[in-house]
Amino acid sequence: MKIVLANEIYPPRAGGAGWSTRALALALKEAGHEIVVVTTSAGPPDLDGLDVRRLAWSGRKRFAVPRAFAAFIETLGDDAVIHAQHPLAALGALHTRHIKRVAVTIRDHWPICFWSTRISRGEICPRCGLVPMTRCMRGHVAVPAPLSWAVIPYMRWDLHEKRNALRHAGALIAVSEAVAAEVRNAGLPAPRVIPNIVDARELARVADAAPLAPVPERFLLFIGKLEANKGVQFLAPAVAAAATGLTLVVLGEGSLARSIKHDARAADVPLIFRGWAHREEALRVLARATTLVFPSLWPEPLSRVLLEALALGVPVAAVDTGGTHEILVPEESGLLVSSIPELGSAIERLVRDEALRRKIAAGARLRSQAFSPERLVPRYEAVYRELL
Length: 388
Fold this sequence. Notes:
Elements: E1 2-6, H1 16-30, E2 34-39, E3 51-54, H2 61-74, E4 80-84, H3 87-93, E5 102-106, E6 119-120, E7 123-124, H4 145-148, H5 152-166, E8 171-174, H6 177-185, E9 192-193, H7 200-207, E10 219-223, H8 235-242, E11 247-251, H9 257-266, E12 271-275, H10 279-287, E13 291-294, H11 304-312, E14 316-319, E15 335-337, H12 340-352, H13 354-367, H14 373-387
Parallel strand pairs: 1-2, 1-4, 2-3, 4-5, 5-8, 8-9, 10-11, 10-13, 11-12, 13-14, 14-15
Antiparallel strand pairs: 6-7
């Protein structure tokens, strides 16, 4: 089959959505399909030996990027399946003559929440609607509170347009049961659940080399965006509560970078702050971590960091939100908790109990097989065949 994967976010500089698209592209190519990746992100046209089309666009992102995708997709013949991986690519693909051959993967909360996080004022949004939307303006809209009401009609229109477009897709795919439940509750067609692919063999090859910057022999690790939805405001307190004495290594960038450094100093937590790291470097550091700390606050759709930790056999202490329990089996492939005080206790257990750490590492590698190309490619192929 000819399969076009469309995503406005794509490597070399990308978050989990972009790297998950790359993993799918490589797995489908290995299975013998003709793969074209189309994106509006910058980078080389032949990354990883894939045919990557980098589209130019100008203007306001919300409208210009979907137009760029639509213009490209309109040039395709009727023999191609289009698989949109993120909202702007989906909006473009769903406004073309190929709409019935478009599958859309929903990777986070973008059909439900204008900001895609379901976080309002540092906590889970209680509900969405005309009045509750005023809660969401702080930190997002740089206008006085009374004037922020003027933005709400646009937010409501944007969500309406996204949901209406999704109703006409050839197929909807959710990365987890947690995301699928949100989609159904919003009155959209029930999506199939197909999780993201992680190739343990590729990760092992990359992680085998030593990190470019040395790390301690034993350390705690956080990888991700330094934003409130990732719970980084709880990171230093949780590590301090664990009282292991291990250094906390942080790989990531975001608006809370400065506060993390301040919190670590205040809590007397040894900190190595690296900022953003290339994927290869992040994997090499991850593979050597004593414990990955995962304090996420938002309903996690299906964290790629957790999938990669599984594949590398890295013990994880995680707050159980969203689809996290669909990745980690408690006490078998990770430790799941419901609160930050409990997270500190879970970190302490993993650091001090070597037998538990070995058990979790082995269970994680075994669990990662559920997300392998061999398990998941046939499920994607079944969707594509139905669209042709």
